[in-house]
Structures
1.
Amino acid sequence: MERSKHKSIMIERKKEVIASLENLGLQIYEQIDDGYFPSIEMPSRSTENIRYDPQVRQYILGDRKVRRHTRNIRHIRPFTQLVWTALFSRELTSHRKTSTLRDVYYSAQAYEMKFTDQQESNNIITDLETVLGLSREDFNIFPEERSAVFGDLTIEYTVPGYEGKTLNLTSHPDGVMIGPALTSSEFVSTTADKVIAIEKGGLFTRFVEENVHKKFNSLLVLTAGQAPRATRHFIRRLSRELDIPVYIFTDGDPWGMHIAMVIISGSANAAHLRELTTPDAIWSGVWATDIVDYKLPTDPLDEVDVKRLYELQRDPRYKDPLWQREIKTFLKIRKKAEQEAFSRYGLTYIVDEYLPTKLEETK
Amino acid sequence: MARTTFEEISAADFFYRNRDIAGFTNPTRAIFAAVRELVENSLDAAESLKVPPDIYVRLSYANETDKETNVFRLMIKDNGIGVPPRHIPSAFGQVLYGSKYKPKQQRGTFGLGGKMAILYGQITTHQPARIISSTGMSKIYSYKLRIDIQRNRPLILDRKVLINKERWRGTIVEFSLEGDYSRAMPKILEYFKQTAMVNPYANLTFVDPKGRLYKFARATEEMPDPPKETLPHPYGVDVELLQRLIHVTTFRNMSDFLKNHFHRIGEITARKFLEFSNISPSKNPKRLSHEEVVRLMRMLKEFREFLPPNASCLSPLGEKLLKTGISKELEPEFIAVHQRRPSTYAGHPFIVEMAIAYGGEIPRKGSFLIYRFANRIPLLYDEASDVSTIVMNSMNWRRYKVTPDMPIAIATHICSTKIPYKTVGKEFIADRPEVRREIANGLREVARRLQRFLTRREHVSRDRKRLDIFSKYLPKIAEFSTQLAGKEKNPDIKKLLRSVKRFGT
């Protein structure tokens, strides 16, 4: 682990972000100055232009482009919003401030650039990501956070006012929120040799109480349902920079499976972005076969579960035999189980029996 | 015609007993009808001289009889042709005496409206009428008279001759009558307003019993050409008329008789018709038997080669005047008028004029305002039964981008030597296919023009909105991109905004 290396990467990256934002401004400025209605070209995010790339093991955008043209009456407003968002992001990035999606929505109003709703402002931010090929976290816009990390990892802050300060991630038993300060921090040192990502808050707390981080020498990450992008990027960094494997534990149902898959291979929604995936991460459970093997208490699959399973069966990300086998098993047993289902064998069973077995099995 | 039929009892007596026919049904209708009949006589009197009418009407309380029904004094003064002194007593004191029994377009329909009003006044108040008139010569004649109902004769109570120093010309009629003004008021005011619409060259002044002055000023001095008198068209004759013509004719053979008493019959047509109907051209019309007269009438109707009557006997308002009148009274944002070519029904020529007006002072009330006129008279009752209403209701308005909630007024003017009224009340026009077709075609024409106006207005407002959007966002884009690029000065967007104006249209 090289601290200085990461630090310089971070600084370089911020410079690049600012440069590409300014370049966008210049491009528009020059078009107007030359007497043209300014326009911007970007890859199309329509479903026809999203495809799975087995090489990079994630969804990517195809070659189709769209052009936002200010001469088009329907484009001019979103175009203006896009330029404003770029300007706002440049300010954030260069002043090393962060902002939430909600902030962006409200800040626009001060410039008479009111977004009709949060969705509109989110879409514009996605447009800007697509134009620049950067993710919003790069230009310091973050969603509301709800995921956390716990374990023996010491980080050093880079955010203004905390530069140089360090923190060990075991210092708070509820875990440390994966927010802008943490995602932009540098990793200083760790004793952990693996990452365990957990879908649900209850189990995350149980693992902390049961000293899973010590017993299994691991960092614990709470995804709190579908992992936010910042968390996915953070997991990738843990995997890459610390060079340790990532194991994912979710509920035993199609939705749990997909939480794991998005961490591994990304989502179609983020096809315009890179560096959010952790292709080597492993889904360790709860598998359909675990439900059978451990005789877990179950609920029957309902209609939407079954429908979702058929969708996943055709999804290129699920072509691996393990995934196909689990989908088939779910469809066969027509049952699902939550992570908490292990409590039928006592509160510590999952830590004492299930976890070591599965870690060994999926190693 | 009616005159000969009812000679046995006095005509005045007949109308006294059947005053409903002339619209004097009740105190409300009576006061309205009296005002209306006299105003129309005055309009005709001025128009026959081609002088823009100046009409002053004053209605005042005489004394109170009971709460609802009051006795009023009605006075009307015009600048019309005036009545020659020897005709004054009969013109105002003898029912069915007058100059309106020729086939040309007239407002008055029976020639009894004015006299009916005087008769009604006399019946209800037992007061004589005063008539003052001058043809603009050296004298003014003033009569006080009463109608002898049983004998249908004027009774002259007083006669004065005044020196006309100022060469005044016109007629003043003043008499008392019973009526209910408070109920009649809305209709009377509406009558004046609508009369002003189709007589934009007239000054109408009305002072009501409470002393309120209503003035409808003329908007133009221009007047439509007066109608010419014509002979009856062969399609329109009946046995009665034929017999009358035979009675008075001086021509001794059928050929001359037809040529001289009918419209659109000349030498060749007469010959063809007589061949067609197998009547000898040399036959003396006075020798025709009753059966032969009936047959002649039928043949006249069956013969296909008469040209339709020409419209010189009609006096339509004309597109320009109709537009002027409606514009002055309704103050719309847009108006389209259209005059149809002359047409005929049952041998009677008629012309339909249509107008559609939109916006401005026209209220939105969930349905169109409908104004109906016949021979420049507003029709105020029985709107729902009128052929115009039927045509309007059957129009597919959506095709013209028109919805009932729009502020729209539609005016129909039909002029004819014989308006096809449905009932004796003469308040609505019958659903004759020929008339209906003309109204429908006229309405489509003005509706199309309204549609073009609405579409153009929509385009203009869309263009304005476009420009607004570009003017709002382009400066912001310029400003934001300047800041983002770290430039000093905003780029010039004037050129871009100019081009928006261009490609918007």
2.
Amino acid sequence: MAKIPNTKTLLGSKLGPSVAVVASFGVWGVVYYFLEPLSRWATGSIPGLGEWPRLRNAAAFFIYEAPKVLMLLVLIVFVVGVVRSFFSPQRTRRLLSGKKEATGNALASLLGVVTPFCSCSAVPLFIGFLTAGVPLGVTFSFLIAAPMVNEVALVLLFGLFGWKVAALYLGTGLGIAMLAGFVLGKLGLERQVEDWVWKIRAQEGSADEILPWNGRLRAGVAAVGEITGKVWPWVLLGIAVGAFIHGYVPENFLASLMGKSAWYSVPVAVLLGIPMYSNAAGIIPVVHALIEKGASLGTVLAFMMSVIALSLPELILLRKVLKPKLIGFFVGVVATGILLIGYLFNLVL
Amino acid sequence: MKKLQVLGSGCAKCKTLADLTAKAAVDLGLAYEIQKVTDLIEISQFGVMATPALAVDGEVKVVGRVPTLEEIKKMIS
């Protein structure tokens, strides 16, 4: 009789994690494939909903979107967790030091997407980059791209709007990071960095860790536990708000307020977004519902980018290393970029 | 006397790392001194760009993640 390995020995053995991961991918695929009929059946089986069409609409929205978005989230967070195990801030810094403008800005923006980054370590990272000879503008490209092009946002946009909008978000996010960093570099603002920063003599830092594949898969699983564990309540809350708007707000209700014809809607959206700080996971289901009710994509995207890219807590941290004037330029250049994107989308789509 | 420094600006992971490190040192029966480095400037001087991080006698051993208890034991012994 064949011995069935239990999960513990499976995970402990050499091939364990990869087998477990492949099996999980299989289960994921099957469930995702049957999600729509399943959710329709689940909505239909709630008694008495037929008499309440609005509540029914809201419930149908929630019952389908919540598991779908959470599943996409788990998948992408895992993949990004594995990809990120190949990049460390150290390695990124080595790739960027001494790079010229333009190429440097482009490379920094791309690396900003895949390098593990938390806004709580924005300051050490900023100092680490500058003291290693990464130009100021290139450093800014990285600091803008890292929070703005967010994997959670990307997957939600893909899940709720399709690949075109997701690609536009990725492309424009990278574009803003490159251009804003380039402009900030050209302005010659080196003296607007607090003076002591240039005097820091930092250690080399530790050497890169080289992880085996098992370790990388574990990093992916750890990322799922950590990120998904943190954002799921926000996702559910966001979808609940989205479901409410979906069911109860009349069609085209927002068209006059947040539609294409309202020229002021884009700047207002950007301004509103700066002091707000939410994670992408919570805000996108709301965005989805807003668009359904007549808000234009450009306006809503500008709002979203402003909320994610310009956050007050991060600005307060950065104030430790940047003089107020440079903070002002930073916010100004990034906000202008978002503004242009918002108008562009409203014009083109 | 081992000097153990946990680098991080006070996130949840930094606390986990500090607790684990103390536990590892106690398990090994080391004479140690543990210090939390929360100042961002001091953290930068270690050349650390992602937190949490652990330095043993001034040398950075791990950056940007919380290692397992066993790993920490190897780093500090």
3.
Amino acid sequence: MTLDYLRLEVRRTLRDVGFMIGGVVMPVVMYLLFTNLGGGADGDWRTASMIGMAAYGAMGSALNTGGGVAEDRSTGWLRQLRITPMSPRQVVAGRALTGAVTVLPAIVAVLAAGGLVNGVRLDAWKWAVIALSLWLGSVPFTLLGLGNGYRLTAQATGVVNMVCNLTLAVVGGLWFPLALFPGWLRSLSSYTPTNRFAQLGTAVADGRAPTLAAVLVLTGWLLLFGSYAVVSYRRTARTA
Amino acid sequence: MAGTPSGTGAAAVRMTGAVKVFGAVRAVDGVDLEIARGETVALLGRNGAGKSTAISLLLGLDEPDEGTVRLFGAAPEHAVRAGRVGAMLQDGRPVPRVTVGELVGFVARTYPSPMPAGEALALAGIAELAGRRFDRLSGGQAQRVRFAVALVGNPALIVLDEPTAALDVEARYAFWDSMRSYARHGHTVLFSTHYLEEADANADRIVVVDHGRIVADGTGEQLRRAAGGSLVAFDLAGTAFDLAGAGTDGLSLLPGVVSLEVRGERARLRTDDPDATVIALAERGAIRGLEVAPASLDDAFLALTATASDAAPATASGAASDPVARLAPLETV
């Protein structure tokens, strides 16, 4: 039953033109522009930016899951689901799984652009582990999106998701190399979930394991966004 | 997914003393309602009478502040989880980016013994829309998709909140035909409406709701009779009841009279026994411009829902202000 629901919601998400453009096309285009304009970037930045933009796309797609929830609340679809035999738990699980599936197109598309267009060369296992860590690392952002989607109106969720997305992307260093940042911003950046999210991938590309600090910071955000999602859900899901 | 064991003989719906308060408004104010299996019941009331809130309580979407709700002898959540309930909610907007066939098919698979999606679409009269996107349909078409969603699970109880609100006349007839054929298979149907004719034509029983309370419960015929089977009207001027005479208070004491309404110079009496009322009026010389007519269902509805807070002019009758008591013998509970 949850799988049926997952299939339905994934289908609905992939038909969302806004999602496809914002979550998949934009990160690919930005990646290719940022690494090829003005004489082109060096090999390191081609790889680091690939991971940053894949992370950016994954975050956008993950947040979008919350936008979907807000939309389903406003149309009454969540209320309709409550009078089907599906349990609230199954509905939430289906939604979270939808988030997990719909971050994949962005990750795959940007990594493909790196390998096929920008000539990034990595061992096969590195590609696989980078994709996997980006996939797992997107979970906190799905929870943040769900927290917004269960708490706010559809319109407010769209705005808040966008602000979160842009702020976290820029401050986390997904768009520009951290080296260009002033010192204070660089130290702030190391506490953002996005910065640590991308580090999961860049560490693998450099042939290292992710640092303990990266895992700890991400886990902290995971717990924070997770609690936010649970509190928001408890507050509004019953009246959805 | 198994049926609840307690659900074999219990009534489809049993609400006992249900109360739901929103701020200062008692949206549902002490409702007792029992619906037997296989019955088709209309919940009739004006906008804001409490119909939708009562339906929310019934479906377990809202918890009553007081009282209990049981569907097939179990809590609403259990009946819903067991797939015994299907519903069409009032203000749902179309689910975006999904085709009608995908949506109805998905809902079907959440139920333990659904009908084929195609059958539900055919019953709802929208078989040709299966491949169309739900959010690109007209209001009437979308309404019928919601009907298909409500019945595709083949639930024992189907609840329809103002199902014909967005439909034109023709679609309305087609809708009621489908609904009746679903009900004929032994399913229990509860629908809300503010159209009297719809309630009368399509329900075995009409439950009239006003200000969060049930003010009448019976067949259309019973309601007509209970509200005062007939209407007797006459001109007051020059009779013993005009302002120069004894006034109109005495009229409500005449034989058969259950309620009295004075508009300008004309008195309208609702009566159980028009013959006795007319004879009594004749004895008092009060038959100028006399008119005797059977009460329409509209008259019955207005009489049943007339309360002090409404603008009904000069409703002067002990009976009309307490319609529940007056109708008590009617209740089929």
